[in-house]
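Supplementary Methods, section 5.1.

A reviewer requested that the exact input to the structure prediction be made available. We therefore reproduce it here, unchanged from the version used in the analyses.
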Amino acid sequence: MLSNIRIVLVQTFHPGNIGASARAMKTMGLRDLVLVTPRQFPDPEASRLAAGAEDVVDNARVVGSLKEAVVDCVQVVGASARLRSLPLPHYDEPDEMARSLVANAVDDPVALVFGRERFGLTNDEIRCCSHQVSIPANPDYGVLNLAQAVQVLAHEVFTAWRRRPESDYRAARPNTDRAPTREQLDHFHDHLTHIMQRSGFITQPHARTEEQLQALFARAQPSRKELSLLRGLLSSLERGLEDG
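The structure derived from this sequence is encoded token-by-token as follows.
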């Protein structure tokens, strides 16, 4: 189960923070590290600050975009301050997030995403996520460095894993009952946007409408079977537009 939980670091500036994050991961049983366009990697400083977790650093994968990093994941949680302009589901308490992440990791890959040291994740990167989570901290000084944030949330995940109910040892759910991957959801949203434009519901790209619909389906959490049903509905509407 823990092997299905991925830590994604986006555009890390200081290579030492990669090593420190790897150390934080390994202490909590996590080993799947993906780096999105790090400024400098590999680097001796990353290995030095890993302090025993060099294997996590050595096995880290480097990719060119956040979308590529999470394409196979069924849940993607972005660690950030709460952004009300992007109405994705938000976990106010990290332990609630961790229980959900661990439950989904029984069958499929999931991801925790951390942004840049100075300003975190951009709005476009948050849109690649299915949820957001914030770490409660001193309101007068709630600043955590990258490795500290990884450690806090990795600990919550490890605790949720240790305390998971016996029912989580069940046999894998049927494929159709599982949550869709980000790639499957992206295809659905692209299809939905296409139909909205073809039907005249929107006459030009309208990011706000698309964001609100993305948030709606994120809250609904459709299964793969339900998403397939929606895709079938869209295909039927598309054929009707063509016949008309």
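The two ends are 50 Å apart (CA to CA). These observations are discussed further in the main text.
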